[in-house]
Amino acid sequence: MDLNNASLGELFTSGQSILSELEDTTLASIDPEYQAKVHDALLRLERAQDLVHQLAIFSSNELVDDMNPNDLRFLLIPVYLGDLTLRVTDRNKSRRHILEAAKNHFNTYMNACEEHQLLSGADLDAYKRSVDTSNSNSRSLPPAQQRQQKIEMFKREKATENRIRELRERLNVDENEDKDDIERDWVLALVQLHILKALQHLHSIDQELVMVKEMEAMSHDRQRMLSSAGRSDEQTARTDIRPSTWGRDKPLLSKEGRPLQPFVITNKRQALKDQVFRPGWSLPTMSIDDYLAQEEARGNIIRGGGEPPSEEKKEIDDNDYEAQDAETMRQRDWDEFVEANPKGWGNRGNKG
C-alpha cells in the first residue's frame, strides 16, 4: 500500500487489523517478523494521525453526539500508537525513549477523551492522580484502596469486552436495525475499553521509568568508576562515588515516610554478604593439636600425678583364714548397705 496516496479510513483499518494480529500471534516480541509488523502498523497509524491533524476532524468544543460515527473511531489512533510503541524492541533506541514516546501517546488519547467528555468521574480522578504521581506531587492511595480499584477496573474491562463482542455480532448479523447507532455504540465501547487500558499502561510506564532511570544512573556511575585512576578496589570505588544528578533535587522520603525515589542501602554491605554466603555452622579455627598445645602453654594441662592404675584383685589363699573372715565381713557389710539403701533412694528431687 502506498501510504501517501491511501485514504484515512484505509490507513486506520489496516493499522487496526495489524494490531489485532499482533495480539493473537504466537511470535515472540523479538522476532524480526513481529517487529516488521509493528513498524508497518506504526507507519500507517502515524500517517493517519497526520491526516487527522491536517483535516482538523476533531474540535476541542465538539461533543461526542455531534461527531460523525465514521470519524469517531479515529479517536483511537493515539492509544493504538502507544500500544504499538511499547511493543518496539529496537536496540538503537533506549528503553527510556520508547517508554516516554508511548506515554505521550497515551496522554494525548486521555486528553482528547477528556476534551470530548468521554471520561467518567472515576476515570478522570484516576488519570489526574496518575499525572500528579508521575510528578511526585500527590499521595498514593492506601494498598487496600488500590487493590479494590484494580478489581473494579478489571470487572469493568471484562464487561466492556463482552459488550463489544455483542455489538460486533449485531453489526454482522442484524440487517433491520440501524447500523449507524450500533456502530456508534460499538466505537464508544472501544473508546471506554482503551481508556481503562491506557490508565493501566500509564501506571506501568511510570513504574518502569523509575527503574530505567536508576539503571541509567548506575551505568553512568560504573563508567565513571572504571575511568577513574588509582582505584584498586571496585567495591570501594562504587560506594565512594556520588550518585548521579537525577533525583538530587527531590527528597528521598515524603512527610508520611513513603519513598519518593529508589535508593540502595550500602552500609555494611560486605559484612552482610559474608554473613549470608557462608555455612550454617561455625567452622573450626585451629586443629585439636594446636588447641592442646595452647592449653598446655597456658598451664591448663597437668602432667603426672594422680592415682596409679589399680592392680588386679588377688585371690585369697584357702589356708589364710583371717583373710577369708575379713572378706566375708566386707561382703556382709556391703549387703547390709545395699539393703538399707535401694537403688535410686537418694535421688528424690524430681519424684515429689
TrEMBL record:
Cited PANTHER family: IMMUNOGLOBULIN-BINDING PROTEIN 1
GO biological process annotation, one example: regulation of dephosphorylation
Ranges of Polar residues composition bias in the record: 132-148
Protein name: TAP42-like protein
Biased composition (Basic and acidic residues): 231-258
MF GO annotations: protein phosphatase 2A binding
Gene3D superfamilies: TAP42-like family
Coiled coil (UniProt feature): none
Lineage, uppermost ranks: Eukaryota, Fungi, Fungi incertae sedis, Mucoromycota, Mucoromycotina
Gene Ontology, cellular component aspect: cytosol
